[in-house]
Amino acid sequence: MELEITNDNFEEILKNNELTVVDFWAPWCSPCKVLGPIIEELADDNKDVTIGKMNVDDNTTKAASFGIRGIPTTIFFKNGEEVDRMVGMHSKVEFQVKIDSLK
Known about the structure:
The protein is α/β, with parallel strands linked by helices. The chain has helices at about 10-15, 30-45, 60-65, 90-100, and strands spanning about 5, 20-25, 50-55, 75-80, 80-85.
């Protein structure tokens, strides 16, 4: 199960995990609804990676600080630093390849 990430727990999660994947989404976003189950599957398949979702409507400050202009946007963090991002809808395989390359 993916983790719910908020403005309040974001820094702590990044600090305590080597590799973190954050899906920036909103409940009204159709592509986000399609991506949701993929993110959940990735979280279940990659127990050694912290994978979570941040609702941009509820966490506007953090989303703005990363320049999120289109959703879904998935950002990959390694040791607390952004190392890559994927904007829009992608397949589970594409996400898994990215995660594997960052491990």
